[in-house]
Amino acid sequence: MIIISIVGILSQDLLQIVNFLFSCFIIPLLGVNFIKKQTVEAYFEFGVLKAMKENLGDYIVMILKTYALTIIFGLLTIVLIGFPALMFTSSIFVADFYRRYVKG
């Protein structure tokens, strides 16, 4: 927070870059550490970041896979949710037509 505040004072563009780097590289690893240990101190165990520095190539590939999976799930949501929703909507109009014009 302190680093982001200082960078924000210096430059807004630099702030966005630093914020992006924090959210892509540092926060995910500390978040997993938090989930594993379930203590607030786990977010401040920066020694975990040593694994990221030592395996930077694998870490970047992992981040790219995460973004690719997010895009794929986004597209699947459109396909899997979009088509059934479209079919259901057309059924609603048929049902409404039936209710209004077909008596019995």
The count of β-strands is 0
Any idea what the radius of gyration is? 24 Å
> How many domains?
2
Helix and strand composition category: mainly alpha
The helix/strand series, from N terminus to C terminus, equals HHHH
Report mean pLDDT, rounded to a whole number.
76
How much of the residues is beta strand, in percent?
A: under 5%
So what's the overall shape? Answer: elongated
In percent, how helical is the residue content? over 70%
| Count of DSSP-assigned helices | 4
Helix-strand layout with pairing:
Elements: H1 2-10, H2 12-37, H3 49-54, H4 56-101
Structure characterization notes:
The chain folds into two domains: 54 residues, no CATH class; 49 residues. It has 104 residues and is mainly alpha-helical. The model has no long low-confidence stretch (mean pLDDT 76). The protein contains four helices and no strands.
